[in-house]
Specification:
Elements (H helix, E strand, L loop, with lengths): L11 H10 L6 H13 L3 E4 L6 H12 L3 E5 L6 H4 L1 E3 L1 H19 L4 H10 L11 E3 L1 H6 L6 E5 L6 H13 L1 E4 L3 E4 L5 E6 L7 H6 L1 E4 L5 H11 L5 H14 L10 H13 L7 H11 L3 H9 L1 H8 L12
Parallel strand pairs: 1-8, 1-9, 2-5, 5-8
Antiparallel strand pairs: 3-4, 6-7
Helix pairs in contact: 1-2, 10-11, 10-12, 11-15, 12-13
Length: about 325
């Protein structure tokens, strides 16, 4: 029987509403991918610019399902030991010393080598057991009694060799530990992989996953996001701010402002008691959503036109460098 939380995944509309209930404003495309990934039990490879809500999507799904979010942060040089498990060697050494100290007591009364071996084998061998195993994110995800959301973040930063290992794990949701045998997932996790497109993912991994690309949101969607995330923002400032950010994204920048930076700027303007965008206020706060000095300089070259266009009632305004 499905839980009340899983019932929110019975239709695309239910997914969209469930995400909205936890303050994630999703497009129809995002909700459709989550609906399919959950019901087909397939990982979702989420790509797109930094700051558009890829990681937040996984967190929101975990919140809806009321299960743990287990995050594996990828980086260059990440290997199986860091992702799956490691042995607690110091604890094993202590166990060895304890076993040595107790050996005489264990062998008391045994006559001959055969009897001694029988006595030794009568005791459990704990040296290679889960008592001495340090679980890492992938191992933890397989052991969740109620399931979990497994977030494999920035998978494009890992090496191709690790990607191949990851593909093997995601194929059957099981791993082989030589000393313990095969460990299967108690409940298949809901898996999200995120990528900022720093390198091309392999065809094999893409075939295994559903693909979701999250672009910068359209103006109407970005306004909805601000309404939910910065509720004190007036409707007029919301509209002007989104117009401005949308226009800035059309400039030739090193890094375009993300949705998270739009939210930060909205909170900044609210803190400054701004009711409308003004040239001075925008100049003073460009560094909130532009992170490179060259980008700030480019925006300053066009700032008058950007502000003038943003405060027009027409949402379709886009400033263009020319």
């Amino acid at each position: 029987m499905k839980s009340i939380h899983q019932a929110q995944f019975e239709s695309v509309a239910a997914v969209q509403q469930g995400l909205a209930d936890v303050d994630y404003i999703a497009s129809r495309e995002i909700a459709t991918s989550v609906y399919l990934g959950f019901n087909l039990e397939k990982p979702i490879l989420v790509e797109g610019p930094a700051g558009v809500g890829k990681t937040e999507l996984a967190k929101s799904v975990a919140q809806i399902l009321d299960v743990p979010l287990i995050r594996l942060q990828c980086y260059e040089g990440l290997d199986e030991a860091k992702a799956l498990y490691e042995w607690k060697y110091a604890k094993q050494l202590l166990y060895t010393q304890l076993l040595k100290d107790k050996l005489g007591e264990m062998m008391a009364g045994a006559k001959g080598l055969a009897a001694s071996m029988d006595r030794l084998h009568a005791h459990d061998d704990l040296f290679f057991s889960e008592n001495f195993l340090e679980p890492r994110p992938l191992y933890q995800a397989l052991h969740q009694e109620r399931g979990c959301v497994l977030l494999i973040d920035e998978v494009d930063k890992s090496d191709p060799e690790f990607e191949a290992f990851l593909l093997e794990v995601l194929s059957d949701f099981q791993v082989s530990v030589p000393e313990l045998g095969t460990i299967k997932a108690k409940v298949k996790p809901v898996v999200f992989l995120t990528s900022n497109n720093t390198r091309e993912m392999s065809d094999a991994l893409k075939r295994r996953c559903l693909h979701l690309y999250i672009p910068f949101p359209a103006p109407a969607l970005e306004r909805l996001i601000l309404q939910r995330r910065v509720p004190g923002l007036s409707a007029s400032l919301n509209r002007e701010l989104v117009n401005f950010i949308q226009a800035v994204r059309e400039l030739d920048l090193k890094k375009q402002p993300s949705v998270s930076e739009t939210i930060d700027w909205a909170k900044t303007l609210l803190l400054l008691n701004a009711e409308h965008l003004s040239l001075d206020t925008v100049k003073e706060t460009l560094n909130v959503f532009l992170k490179f000095e060259t980008d700030i300089a480019i925006a300053q070259d066009h700032i008058a036109a950007l502000v003038a266009g943003a405060i027009k009632p027409d949402d379709s305004f886009h400033a263009r460098a020319g």
